[in-house]
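Dear colleague,

Thank you for sharing your sequence with our group. We've completed the structure prediction you requested, and as agreed, I am returning the results in plain text so they can be pasted directly into your records. Please verify that the sequence below matches your submission; if there's any discrepancy, let me know and we will rerun it promptly.
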Amino acid sequence: MDEVFLKQVKRFLDDYEIALYTEHLSWCSDEGHLYDLLPIPFTEQAVRHVAARIRRSQDILERRIAVENASYYVAPPEAEMSESEFITRVLEQADCDLHLDVNNVYVNSVNFAFDPWQFIAALPAGRVAYMHVAGHYQEAADLLVDTHGATVIDPVWRLLARTYTHLGTPPTLLERDFNLPPLDDLLAEVNHIQALQAQHREVGHKRLSR
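Please find the predicted structure tokens below.
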């Protein structure tokens, strides 16, 4: 575990008064940093290992962090549980929060043939601190690649809206890394996020006032 790096991150977070630090829940090193999102085996041993490292990271950073569900393209070997069960057990044992990437859920659901809504509904809603939404590339009917280089598609927007209904409206970031369109097009997507959040906050307010 690169504790020197974590201490540098802590200084950065403190210097710039950053409220929330998140990191991908993925395999990140093998005698050096791996700059790709490789899936962690969904096993009880991996739950204990990852949760311990998150707890140690939180001790060094002196703050609670959130971990992000990652996109992946090879199924982890020797799975003892589903991905949603794995994530939930890590969150509970580490006592950390969840950074929910809705597009990653959708991408994985197409690539590995599962219901994205059932996946999100199985996660602990109370631990979601932050969210992502993004576009992706369709390589084939059963292969999507999480590129952050395209507009968000309608099924992902619908999944985001249903997620807001389920867990409220955490801060949500639109990810776009390349193939940047005109600014007005990006702002239209950001405005769509804000409109969905406003709609679901209004619905929630009406429910509470009854």
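Summary note from our side: Residues 149 and 178 are 5 Å apart (CA to CA).

Kind regards,
the structure core
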